Amino acid sequence: MKYIDEYRDAVAAKKLVEAIRSTTTRPWNIMEVCGGQTHAILRFALDEMLPGRITLIHGPGCPVCVTPIEIIDKAIAIASLPEVIFCSFGDMLRVPGSEKDLLTVKSEGGRVRVVYSPMDAVALAGKNPDREVVFFAIGFETTAPANAMAVVQASKLGLDNFSVLVAHVLVPPAIRAVLSSPENLVQGFLAAGHVCTITGIDQYRPIAEEFGVPIVATGFEPLDILQGVLMCVRQLEEGRADVEIQYTRSVRPEGNPAARKTIEEVFEPVPRKWRGIGEIPMSGLALREKYAKYDAAGRFSVEGITADEPAECIAGEVLQGRRKPHECPAFGTRCTPDRPLGAPMVSSEGACAAYYRYRRKCSGRACPACRRK
Fold it and tell me: To the nearest whole percent, how much of the chain has pLDDT over 90?
């Protein structure tokens, strides 16, 4: 049995930091993709422990954060209907839409429920045949298998009053979009270990080869992240661009074949808009034709809803690693967890929320903005 304290051991962390220091001979920019990794980095000040030549850049790895405002508006429109019970994970309730959020809809009398599993929504549909039950299906590849299974189960049970508002996004196209940007500074990636638990690592190999960047599937505890950085730096120093697994206690090269099969049965890749970034080709999932009747956007005719991102919010630049949260003029003043301008300040994995909780002021040496001065 492995306990969490083993991955937070200070002595082991110092040894890893020293190994990184002795390996590094030049500056390197490494992006951690997952918001959970970002929170661990800020909470344990891992970026401040690293040698000054290593810069950690926060990536677009928070599914709540990258959900565009127009999908939030679609969710609000559906949740406001009197015949609907709208089910969602808790983080999504406070993500601002154009005029309000789902929590406001609930306060106004809407039947908005926080659930812990999409199967909870399926159960609600079975118990409430006179209501339309809609589940807000968001997330990366990690949550896609359970959401796909909910659709399959609803189909088996003949629940015609169940549907899903799909906002799934995929990690590899996002990494490709970051690397394809003319403003890109990223030279290596710490990929999200829980995503790779589902997908495996093969889909990252063409990206590593095409762009010449190492990608390391990494966990979420301090020792995981430091070891992932060390593995990435070693590749960079040796001129290699391989896909490696640090998170070996969870990730296998082939991933989870059964979960992948379920995803492929229910969903197909489609272009998807990302908050503050725009459309990324084939970066989302949509229901296949076989399950199209469970598509809430079509059932409630909200496909035509569009919305612009608030000009004051720099979420897109934060999600692409171009700016740190405390570089935003609204950070901590006009934008707080109680009154957020954008999703990164709301989500438990959002970079802005991490900075607000753990580092409200610039940390000097660890801040890329300061290093550029």
Answer: 79
Q: First vs last Cα of the chain: how many Å apart?
A: 47
C-alpha–C-alpha distance, residues 137 and 128, integer Å: 20
Q: Give the CA-trace dihedral at 128, 100, 117, 162, to 10 degrees.
A: 40
CATH number of 68-168+256-299: 3.40.50.11740
> How far is Cα 208 from Cα 231, in angstroms, rounded to an integer?
14
Where exactly are the structural domains of the chain?
Answer: 68-168+256-299
Q: Is the confidence at residue 208, as pLDDT, over 70?
A: yes
The backbone region for 52, taken as left when phi is positive above 0, alpha when psi lies in -120 to 50, beta otherwise, is alpha
- Torsion angle of alpha carbons 28, 33, 36, 37, nearest 10°? -20
Q: Which pLDDT band, with edges at 50, 70 and 90, does 229 fall under?
A: very high
Helix 144-157 to helix 118-127 angle (10° resolution) is 20
**Residue 44 CA: distances (Å) to CA of 53, 59, 221, 323, 371:** 19, 18, 9, 21, 21
Closest CA to 192 of 58, 17, 53: 58
Find the DSSP H helices in the chain.
10-23, 35-43, 46-49, 63-66, 69-79, 102-107, 118-127, 144-157, 171-180, 193-199, 205-211, 222-238, 257-266, 296-299, 315-319, 351-358, 368-371
DSSP 44: T
C-alpha–C-alpha distance, residues 234 and 237, integer Å: 5
> Could you tell me the pTM of the whole model?
0.91
